[in-house]
TrEMBL record:
GO cellular-component term (any): nucleus
Source domain of life: Eukaryota
Record's keyword annotation contains Nucleus: yes
Primary location group: nucleus
Protein's UniProt name: Zn(2)-C6 fungal-type domain-containing protein
Chaperone is among the record's keywords: no
Taxonomic source organism: Podospora appendiculata
Length: 688
């Protein structure tokens, strides 16, 4: 045993022996193998390290995380904000709980990625035990971000060694770094530092510009999302003043936005990502971040009932729209309920209590609603008031559109915006977009005035497409009340249908009179939309308003053909109709047929407009037209279109129209869950 030599001689093997994987005798200047073969013997005494030693990366991460924590503590101490510290601690606790749950899920999936306990030992400073989180790049799925926890404790670790629960240091490095075997120490340090720098926003909550909780959004990505919002979302949800948003979002007014504005900014970017294909992978993370921010800050402000930031209401509304696109209408309905309650608590339905509110815009602010303004925004009183109006009307429209298909009870009723003397609640319709963005005051009528006194050719309409959608949403709400009354065989008085013509006040308002009044009001809105002749292929809100008006005509026609649910009134049976009523019903059927084909014509403008800019509720009027044409084309003879020998035309044209609208639904379903649901249901009916 003592006479046996060492297993491996000291020194380095030559390159030729290494290449051939032969045993080198380490002879100098030439080894024995190279001497026998006559090859050049090359010996490299100094070799580059192939990777960091065990524990070096974890120690460096711990140092960076500790420095980040110290910086946060330093800035918090300077600001003297104990409330922010409590929020950070609460958020860190929530993150820690989510990380524990994620770790358990990872262990079930077989990934050995979990909490790692380290102690940072430096020669210059001593750090206190603190729990810091950092984002790792362990093997993940596309929709899951794995996280680990670094806790400096009594267990020691230094740059030369240390234990870890991680499988290997390659698991925490990008794929292209793990494949490289010839990185120098300096290159590896620079690469790792760059990698950790890109992960720095996920270590703690960013109160400045909405970097997110654990999201790796670069400045370019955030700018792209902001631009996407105003290009695609704002035309259909016009509630944010563009210039004022970029004033505080860019950090020109304040170093960091307020918590309410941070919530709004996150919701805006969530909605922008939901209407984009190349950003849709961020929707789930952005949605979770927005909901967490809203839950945290709304709970903090729950004790103050006199001040409700407008940004909270706007954020909940945008989040509901994003969930409508991403998840479905049921989840959107639950989220929208939070926004509706804030609208009621903030009393946004009585912004214009004063008749001269537009002459004195500074007095039209609701005392229960506040927004954060700067010294550059003091002259933006009209824009500030208009932003509140638009927030209310967006909530009003969202409530009506969500409840329309399933005929759910409304939360924001029309009488909330009524200038009735018995109810001090009133809010004017939204102003045109140019007046809103340029802070140019204009007097817009109330909703009942716009419905009862529509503009004529001598006095053209000043209503914007957004205001027209609000009017049509209100008319749709009346149509739902009318249909529900007919389905239940009721004869409500005028109070059930507010603001009727004076000649009908105080008398019974039977079915056919309600039907004629609603049909006349909707026909006036159709004529008003046709008169300006605006480019529907470039304005998604105007296109949706046109489709909504024609869809209301179809809705009224379907009300006439609604099966009877009650037998208490025998004179309501189909066979008991008078000849005059049958002719009127046939006339409604023909109007609905024309309206359905008009929706087909308007649907051809969706591809030129881009399906990514379409209104989130655009699938509803398309589906209504598809169902109407499909049911009528299946009816043979003149009775298919309600009489008059038009059944053949309906049968010939309806098939092509149905295919065109199904094609639009197929395109829109890429980003719209409502379109996906309608498309699958229609496909099941046709081929099932």
């Amino acid at each position: 045993m003592d006479g046996r030599g060492l297993r491996q001689q000291p020194g380095f093997a030559c390159e030729e022996c290494r290449r051939r994987k032969a045993r080198c005798d380490r002879g100098r200047p030439k080894c024995g193998f190279c001497t026998e073969t006559g090859t050049t013997c090359v010996i490299v005494d100094k070799r580059q390290q192939r990777g960091p030693k065990k524990g070096q990366l974890n120690a460096m991460r711990s140092q960076i995380a500790t420095l980040q924590w110290q910086l946060d503590q330093h800035f918090d101490a300077e600001s003297g904000s104990s409330q922010q510290q409590q929020q950070q601690q609460h958020q860190l606790q929530q993150q820690h709980q989510r990380q524990q749950q994620q770790h358990e899920a990872d262990m079930q999936l077989g990934f050995n990625v979990g909490p790692t306990t380290l102690t940072v030992t430096t020669s210059s400073a001593t750090t206190t035990p603190t729990t810091i989180t950092y984002a790792s790049t362990a093997p993940t799925t596309n929709s899951t971000t794995r996280r680990s926890t670094i806790s400096p404790t009594t267990a020691s670790s230094n740059c030369a060694g240390g234990s870890s629960d991680l499988t290997s240091w390659q698991d925490l490095m990008p794929l292209e770094w793990a494949r490289s075997e010839d990185l120098s120490d300096m290159d590896l340090d620079l690469a790792e530092t760059s990698f950790m720098h890109s992960r720095m926003p996920s270590i703690s909550m960013d109160h400045g510009h909405g970097h997110g909780l654990g999201l790796d959004l670069t400045e370019h990505m955030r700018a792209d999302l902001d631009q996407l919002y105003f290009d695609r979302v704002h035309p259909v949800c016009p509630i944010v003043h563009r210039r004022r948003y970029f004033a505080w979002a860019g950090g020109h007014e304040t170093p960091s936005p307020s918590p309410a504005r941070t919530c709004l900014q996150s919701a805006m970017r969530t909605m922008a990502a939901a209407m984009s294909v190349h950003m849709c992978h961020l929707v789930d993370d952005l949605r979770a971040e927005t909901r967490q921010l809203l839950d945290t800050h709304c709970q903090i402000r729950a004790s103050s009932q006199d001040e409700i930031p407008l940004e909270h209401t706007q954020a909940w509304l945008l989040l509901a729209y994003a969930e409508l696109l991403r998840i479905g209408e049921h989840q959107a309905m639950l989220t929208a309920g939070r926004a509706f309650r804030l609208v009621q608590m903030a009393r946004l339905y009585e912004i214009d209590r004063d008749r001269e509110v537009d002459q004195q815009p500074s007095t039209c602010r609701s005392p229960r609603t506040t927004t954060t303004t700067t010294h550059h925004e003091l002259d933006e009183t009209f824009a500030d008031t208009e932003e509140r109006r638009r927030t209310f009307w967006l909530a009003f429209s969202l409530d009506h559109f969500l409840c329309l298909r399933s005929e759910w009870p409304l939360t924001l009723h029309e009488d909330m915006a009524s200038p009735s003397e018995s109810r001090p609640v009133r809010t004017r319709l939204p102003a045109p977009e140019s007046n809103f963005q340029n802070n140019q005051p204009i007097r817009i009528p109330f909703l009942p005035d716009a419905i009862s006194s529509p503009p004529t050719t001598t006095s053209p309409s000043h209503l914007s497409p957004f205001a027209e959608c609000v009017v049509l949403a209100a008319l749709y709400g009346r149509c739902m009340t009318h249909r529900r009354a007919f389905a239940n065989s009721l004869e409500p008085a005028t109070s059930d249908l507010p603001h009727q013509p004076p000649k009908l006040a105080g008398v019974e308002y039977p079915f056919w009179m309600r039907q004629d009044w609603l049909a006349s009001a909707i026909e006036k809105r159709v004529q008003i939309l046709v008169v300006p002749g605006g480019p529907v292929d470039s304005d998604p809100m105007l296109l949706f308003a046109h489709m909504l008006a024609h869809s209301a005509v179809v809705f009224l026609s379907n009300t006439i053909t609604l099966p009877e649910r009650s037998t208490t009134n025998p004179d309501r049976r189909w066979g008991q109709r008078t000849m005059e009523q049958q002719l009127v019903a046939a006339a409604y059927e023909r109007r609905a047929t024309v309206a359905a084909f008009e929706i087909v014509r308007l649907a051809r403008a969706v591809p030129s407009l881009s399906c990514f800019k379409a209104h989130p509720f655009l699938p509803d009027p398309l589906t209504a037209a598809v169902n109407f044409l499909s049911s009528r084309s299946a009816l043979p003879g003149p009775g298919g279109d309600g009489g008059g020998g038009g059944g053949g035309a309906v049968c010939v044209g309806s098939s092509d129209g149905v295919e065109q609208m199904l094609g639009v639904l197929r395109d829109v379903q890429v980003i719209n869950s409502l379109a996906r649901e309608h498309f699958l249901a229609l496909q099941g009916v046709r081929y099932g």
